[in-house]
Amino acid sequence: MLKSSTGWILIGLIFIAFMFLLVEVTAEVKEVKTLSELIESHVDLKEVTLSSNSVITDRNGDIISEIYRDANRVYLSYDQISPFIIDAFIATEDQRFFEHKGYDFIAITRAILSNARQESIEEGGSTMTQQLVRNLFLSHEQTYNRKMSEILYAHELEKTYSKNDIIELYINTVYFNNGVYGIEAASRYYFNKPSERLTLSEVAFLSAVPNNPSHYDPLTNSDRTKLRQEWVLKKMLEARYISEDEYQDALVDPIQLNVRKKIDTHPDYVTYIHQEFIDLVAESEGYNLKIKQAPSDEAKQKIEQNLQERVQHLLAQGIEIETYLDPFMQNLAIKTIHRQVPDTDIQATAVVIDHVNNELIAMTAGKDYRKFDLHRGYQVHRQTASAIKPLLVYAPYFEEYNVPIQSTINADNICYKEKGEEYCPRNYGGAQYGMVSLATALKHSYNTPAIRILDRVGVETAFSYLDAFDFSKVDASEQRLTSALGGFTHGVTPLELTRAYTTFARNGSYQTAYGIKQVLDKNGQVLFAWEPEEMEVWSKATNDKMRKLLSEVIESGTARKAQIPADYAGGKTGTSSDYLDLWFVGLNDRYTTGVWVGKDQWLSIAHLSDQSPHLQIWKEIMK
């Protein structure tokens, strides 16, 4: 037994002597440069970055979603760290921190003697700098080889960073169990408050955890954590960081955990914001142009992969994505849809845009939506039916021919030859109405007048007006007369159609309404913000005529059930063939709201059409 202990002691002494000579002596000779270069060839000590939680906030500045994967960390600068926290870690982990050069000769000696008595590696004598190196660059295996690397790295790190920088990095890297890293995230997770508001007792309690995170887990082993907390306070007292009175008060100060779960609300809106953020980065940093100019599909895929990696890198930097979300309107839209469409197999979405400020303030994705599932608000394209008529037919007609609003159009049946085939559109029920006013044709959604007008304007000319809008799947292949009735190959999304209708609220000009206000870095500096261009689609004279026609749709047309008390209200319904889709997009003086109702399986909802759920949803949201 004596021989074994003596052997351990000799090994330890040799190790100490070797390390002392290696670090101290080489500091005086040219080989130190070789040592630095050797370490730099393995790691870049000058570029130490830690991931930090990103957040999405609503229009009031409240967090609606925290973004992080495995590491829950909220990074603090040195100036933001409470002195109590710094004192607690120095008192318990590294009392000679401000004196050593990364390693502590005395602590290492003490650890080796202890290990010799235990005949195993039980203590490491690591400084906070060594622990930081271990967390950042090395493994946690208990071997002398790893310890040697740890000391060398720590010595180099102390030459690169100030003591304050090292404390900052250390306190942001220590692990507090349950996926929590750093004191700020720990404070928010276990006590649901920022670390600056922690009491001395709470600081000591949390400081107890990193020594052995699973053993001192506050959620499962709070008694152990409490005992360790008392030891931490004792060490702080011995180091004269706290007074006897502070020590006694902290011992009896009760610990009340208030575990805070990850914030992740409004999944409909947040899911869309994730996509819009990708779009914003792609536009701001030139990825869109690169994708457009890509010489092959393989090159395009590589650029898209680089974009995704860039986005993930940004989200790991602790950014804040400020949005225009109005939580009240969002919740109102969701509740209204559930109330008006109780059938479990029928879905509905609503998009609400504040067209005065050009802000997307609410958007639903479907009933009982789960984050990142298929989003019916912006990912699903459906046939617009007659809801496209104001944009593709009537506004272009006014703009091209400047006809008076009292003009008439034939509402009888008609047949055309289109692409070698006969096309004979009919009004609903096959009725013929003779000559009718444009207002009558639109408010009752007659089909044959719309076909005649599109033919008169010219299909290509009429479609040129749609170029201003963000209809991602409407292209030249859609240029045919059937499109006057919404007979597109793919269709449009509720978001796309609602955005387009804001033109009627903006004197004929279009500007894309976004959900993201701006993106800030962790220092509050603006990283990204949309710079949308406003484009005049048609004149104010045309727009005034369209507003009049749209108002009659609500006053005495197909949308009478959507009447609301307002200075102005107007919109257009749309019902696709076999009642696969029910649409209503309308506006008042402040908001433009689009509503779609239908089944995911493209099945009829004719039994629901008489109840007009799309109109009832719009009415409840808008009134």
Automatic annotation (TrEMBL):
Residue stretches making up the Glycosyl transferase family domain: 61-236
Q: Does the keyword Nucleus apply?
A: no
Which InterPro entries does this one have? Beta-lactam/transpept-like, Glyco_trans_51, Glycosyltr_51/Transpeptidase, Lysozyme-like_dom_sf, PBP_transglycosylase, PCN-bd_Tpept
Report the principal subcellular site: membrane
MF terms in GO: penicillin binding; peptidoglycan glycosyltransferase activity; serine-type D-Ala-D-Ala carboxypeptidase activity
Residue stretches making up the Penicillin-binding protein transpeptidase domain: 349-579
Q: Which UniProt keywords apply?
A: Carboxypeptidase, Cell membrane, Cell shape, Cell wall biogenesis/degradation, Glycosyltransferase, Hydrolase, Membrane, Multifunctional enzyme, Peptidoglycan synthesis, Protease, Transferase
Read off the Gene3D superfamilies from this record.
Answer: Biosynthetic peptidoglycan transglycosylase-like, DD-peptidase/beta-lactamase superfamily
Query: Which domain of life does the UniProt lineage start with?
Result: Bacteria
- Where is the protein found, in the record's own terms? Cell membrane
Reactions performed catalytically? Preferential cleavage: (Ac)2-L-Lys-D-Ala-|-D-Ala. Also transpeptidation of peptidyl-alanyl moieties that are N-acyl substituents of D-alanine; [GlcNAc-(1->4)-Mur2Ac(oyl-L-Ala-gamma-D-Glu-L-Lys-D-Ala-D-Ala)](n)-di-trans,octa-cis-undecaprenyl diphosphate + beta-D-GlcNAc-(1->4)-Mur2Ac(oyl-L-Ala-gamma-D-Glu-L-Lys-D-Ala-D-Ala)-di-trans,octa-cis-undecaprenyl diphosphate = [GlcNAc-(1->4)-Mur2Ac(oyl-L-Ala-gamma-D-Glu-L-Lys-D-Ala-D-Ala)](n+1)-di-trans,octa-cis-undecaprenyl diphosphate + di-trans,octa-cis-undecaprenyl diphosphate + H(+)
Q: Which GO terms describe its biological process?
A: cell wall organization; peptidoglycan biosynthetic process; proteolysis; regulation of cell shape
| Matches recorded under PANTHER family | BINDING PROTEIN TRANSPEPTIDASE, PUTATIVE-RELATED (PTHR32282), PENICILLIN-BINDING PROTEIN 1B (PTHR32282:SF11)
Q: State the family it belongs to.
A: In the N-terminal section; belongs to the glycosyltransferase 51 family. In the C-terminal section; belongs to the transpeptidase family.
**Name recorded for this polypeptide:** Multimodular transpeptidase-transglycosylase
Q: Which organism is it from?
A: Halalkalibacter akibai (strain ATCC 43226 / DSM 21942 / CIP 109018 / JCM 9157 / 1139) (Bacillus akibai)
Native organism taxonomy? Bacteria, Bacillati, Bacillota, Bacilli, Bacillales
